[in-house]
Amino acid sequence: MSENTVAVSDSGFEKDVLKAEGPVLVDFWAEWCGPCKMIGPALEEIGGEFKGRLTVAKINIDENPEVPTRFGVRSIPTLMLFRNGEVVAQKTGALPKSQLKAWVESSL
């Protein structure tokens, strides 16, 4: 992915997200999704700003259909914040960086 985000897959989701050391923000996205592309740079910046406190992960729903189905993702972008293997917060749709950051801070 990039310096501040990591790609996760159906096969690695349990290890990379559910059993991760700290909180993980998962972005469910697809290449064809305009709003997903709009929030991508903001999530990259948030990943850098919260480095050491939060992992920002991205899962392509077209390439990895099992995890989105398992967690009931019906529209994208959907953001889920996982802590200790549980979803502790969820947002759907594109938001400005300031709102995304405030949501992350309130959920940590």
Automatic annotation (TrEMBL):
Residues at the active site: 33, 36
Annotated site residue numbers, Deprotonates C-terminal active site Cys: 27
One GO CC term on file: cytosol
Entry-linked InterPro entries: Thioredoxin, Thioredoxin-like_sf, Thioredoxin_CS, Thioredoxin_domain
Gene Ontology biological process: cell redox homeostasis
Keywords, sorted A to Z: Disulfide bond, Electron transport, Redox-active center, Transport
Site, as annotated: Contributes to redox potential value: 34-35
A Pfam family: Thioredoxin
GO molecular function: protein-disulfide reductase activity
Disulfide-bond pairs as recorded: 33-36
Ranges of residues in domain Thioredoxin: 1-108
Recorded superkingdom: Bacteria
Family per record: Belongs to the thioredoxin family.
Name assigned to this protein: Thioredoxin
